[in-house]
Design goal:
mainly alpha, 408 residues, 434 Repressor (Amino-terminal Domain)
């Protein structure tokens, strides 16, 4: 077990800033008792609360979460080894190093990029990472040397490559590299000639804003994107892809409002997203945006958890489970592994808040089974697993073993 958990980091930074528990609790509008439980490691703060605490303490969220996570579990996978090469490629994006051989045909690179994108959605970062540097290098040379429509297509695929890089960097906790990758998505998307790819790039930027607690800026950006998608549709007749992208924007707005304490606005945005999902009737992945009826429900639960209403979030799962003749709602097959594992990670944290430690561990185990690498690197998993170990008076080696696997 590592000696520092998220609560200890909060307490240490709070003392450096010469703030009392009451002063910090007041700044983020939570009770003193909740902050004390967080600092003692008996409660796991939500991502929204971590962002608020980071702003109040004048540090980045990564200072609180301890990212990037470097310990035995990660070095075994060697998943960190690709980071320096990605930094070099993102730095030289418009003036790349020479290639030893000519880039492969764009159709071949596009097929490989599709494969990488699917790996991203499935949380297969260890396998995806080594593929990215060479693929980005080839796509960059193709985009810079091509002309006309071929050049736009090359930039379109390059934007997807930068998106995969953003996801890898973010999940591993290299947030500075993640932000650089988002800017590169913008750069490539602007040259792709595809307005929806440009919306996607801005959507990714809004996600970084939300994680940093810049809620007002993110809200303005997302609301503008919603209007932009409407403007792109002739006579307000949105295509399936446009509906999916707009729906993803609405869901991001719902999470933003939940984290910013605007419950009514969050509910309104979820209602709008639900109506959009009804037009699709099934879950889709246009522009790598997971959107549809299932993802709306996933976000509804996440919004309740982020707003602090964990009791209602779990009640909603039981309510939907009754529709399936089950105790609790189960995700349908075909949902992207990363999205599904994220849902179970969120629910595990909610169960811990409600005192259901056995259920919390069970959801963590399910998340691990769906997407092991995504689960292993998720900061909420580490917070939750560490809290379970500290609360486990029977010293169950199953729980301790999971915590060790997660790098706690």
């Amino acid at each position: 077990m590592t000696t520092h958990h998220v609560g200890q980091r909060i307490r240490e930074i709070r003392k450096v800033r010469q703030l009392s528990v009451r002063q910090l609790a007041d700044r983020v509008s939570i009770s003193i008792s909740l902050l004390e439980k967080i600092e003692s490691g008996h409660r796991s703060p939500s991502p929204g609360l971590i962002a608020q605490l980071a702003r109040a303490l004048k540090v980045g969220p990564d200072r609180i979460t301890g990212q990037p996570f470097i310990n035995g579990a990660e070095t075994e996978d060697q998943v960190q080894a690709v980071i320096p090469e990605l930094r070099r490629i993102l730095l030289t994006y418009d003036n790349p190093d020479d290639l030893l051989t000519a880039p492969r045909p764009l159709a071949v690179l596009a097929a490989e990029m599709d494969h990488v994108a699917q790996m991203r959605q499935d949380g297969q970062y260890v396998g995806m990472g080594p593929l990215l540097p060479g693929l980005l290098a080839e796509l960059t040379h193709s985009a810079l040397s091509a002309r006309g429509k071929d050049q736009q297509r090359a930039y379109w695929w390059l934007a997807r490559g930068y998106r995969a890089t953003n996801s890898l960097a973010h999940k591993l906790g290299y947030h500075d590299l993640s932000l650089t990758a988002v800017e590169r998505v913008h750069w490539a998307a602007d040259r792709s000639g595809d307005p929806l790819m440009q919306v996607t790039a801005a959507y990714l930027k809004s996600g970084a804003m939300v994680r940093m607690g810049a809620f007002s800026s993110a809200r303005r950006l997302l609301e503008g994107l919603e209007q932009e998608v409407e403007r792109l549709a002739p006579e307000a007749s949105l295509s399936e892809a446009q509906i999916a992208v707009q729906g993803a924007v609405l869901l991001k707005l719902a999470i933003l409002e939940a984290r910013d304490g605007n419950t009514e606005r969050a509910t309104q945005r979820l209602g709008e997203a639900r109506a959009a999902a009804g037009l699709l009737r099934q879950d889709t992945t246009h522009y790598e945006m997971s959107f549809g009826p299932t993802n709306v429900r996933i976000h509804e639960v996440a919004a309740l958890i982020d707003s602090g209403d964990t009791e209602q979030a779990l009640a909603r799962l039981r309510e939907w489970g009754a529709e399936q003749d089950r105790t609790e709602w189960e995700l349908p097959e075909g949902i992207a592994a990363e999205r599904a594992s994220h849902h179970h990670i969120d629910v595990a944290a909610a169960r811990l808040v409600e005192g259901d430690r056995r259920g919390a561990y069970a959801d963590l185990a399910v998340a691990r089974g769906i997407s092991p690498v995504h689960t292993r690197f998720h900061p909420t998993v580490r917070h939750t697993a560490a809290a379970l170990v500290r609360l486990d008076r029977q010293q169950d080696d199953t729980i301790a073993g999971f915590a060790r696997w997660a790098g706690v």
